[in-house]
TrEMBL record:
It comes from the Bacteria. This is Uncharacterized protein. The chain crosses the membrane at residues 12-38, 44-70. Keywords: Membrane, Transmembrane, Transmembrane helix. The keyword Transmembrane helix applies.
């Protein structure tokens, strides 16, 4: 009886742990996609205004990739 309860708790804990990791990755991907989207919009706007969009877009792209990598590494 005691082992059954213990097993239940351990399996629940592992389930939460795994779903937490999955949600964290999903959050990272969502942030990454939003960063790309806003980066593209900002790049187009800035390119229209100053013609500097080609300089800004890669920086935002690299920033989005780095934030994704750090988020996965931090787990």
């Amino acid at each position: 009886m005691m082992m059954g309860i213990l097993f239940l708790f351990i399996s629940l804990y592992l389930m939460f742990k795994i779903t937490g990791v999955l949600f964290s990755i999903m959050g990272g991907l969502l942030t990454f996609i939003l960063t790309l989207l806003f980066g593209a919009i900002a790049g187009v706007l800035i390119m229209g205004l100053f013609g500097l969009g080609m300089l800004v877009l890669p920086v935002l792209l690299v920033g989005g990739i780095l934030s994704l990598i750090f988020r996965i590494a931090r787990m």
